[in-house]
Amino acid sequence: MSEQMSPADRAKYAAAHRAAAFVEDGMRVGLGTGSTAAWLVRSLGQRQRDEGLRFRAVPTSQRTAEQAREEGIALVTLEEAGWLDLTIDGADEFDAEFNLIKGGGGALLREKIVAAASERMIVIADIGKEVGRLGAFPLPVEVIPFGWQATQRLIEETLEAADVLGREVRPRLAGGQPFVTDEGNYILDLHLGRIGQPRRLAMVLNQIPGVVENGLFVDICDMVIAGYADGRVELRDRDRGASQQDNIELPRPGNLFSDIAE
Ligand SMILES: O=C[C@H](O)[C@H](O)[C@H](O)COP(=O)(O)O
């Protein structure tokens, strides 16, 4: 691997490179968003060039679509694909139950739709994203711009009624303005500290008028591939309840785009 890579980047690249091996000829694949997913797109581009791998992909963001095009990956819409064989994506946090927080990059809505429309979802992450309980990472909630302050207040009241600790709700900003998602919505970040019941919270949040989707992924992830800075990866399979360690020789990534390693 490149000498310039940070330990976190080496871990992300290790996980992404291992996950790329799960893509087979002819598959319809969901491509996630974020710095770890960017390593995946890079690895898949490399497999196309080296092995002639051919697959069609549905990107979960404009950012991923642009990078995939640069890699020569054939893109289709989810409508065209119909259903996907596999989605591979990053996460902001994951726990032992395969629950996730996603949306740190604001792509949670498309990511959840794409992952839910897939036979299988593999999460790739630096081992540092593993938590005992979700919630240290602020939970992103995508809301409709119309009346978003009212939606924020409803979320705060709902959290208060549910006696959720912390419960600070902050609109996400970009350059002093509301951050706008690929679907034209806003994001409210819920600073909760600790989420006791992710399934229940996910359902309650989605009942609030104005909420489009939340970043809790429950019963969606089938496998976690966790990467370590020394290039080791650990594969955890939800169905098999087993964990497997791989010590693979990682090729140098080569021709890296500077924006891959954010
Ligand atoms: O909206 C962004 C996505 O959910 C990302 O997959 C998540 O934020 C993890 O990103 P990264 O791989 O950059 O840590």
Automatic annotation (TrEMBL):
Its lineage reads: Bacteria, Pseudomonadati, Pseudomonadota, Alphaproteobacteria, Rhodobacterales
Source organism of this protein record = Pontibaca methylaminivorans
Binding, substrate: T33, G34, S35, T36, D89, G90, A91, D92, K102, G103, G104, G105, K129
Q: What is this protein called?
A: Ribose-5-phosphate isomerase A
UniProt xrefs under InterPro entries: NagB/RpiA_transferase-like (IPR037171), Ribose5P_isomerase_typA_subgr (IPR020672), Ribose5P_isomerase_type_A (IPR004788)
Q: Which GO terms describe its cellular component?
A: cytosol
What's the EC number here?
5.3.1.6
As its record notes, the protein acts as a catalyst of:
aldehydo-D-ribose 5-phosphate = D-ribulose 5-phosphate
Complex formation:
Homodimer.
Query: Which family, according to the similarity comment?
Result: Belongs to the ribose 5-phosphate isomerase family.
Query: Which GO molecular function entries does the Swiss-Prot or TrEMBL record give?
Result: ribose-5-phosphate isomerase activity
Q: Which gene encodes it?
A: rpiA
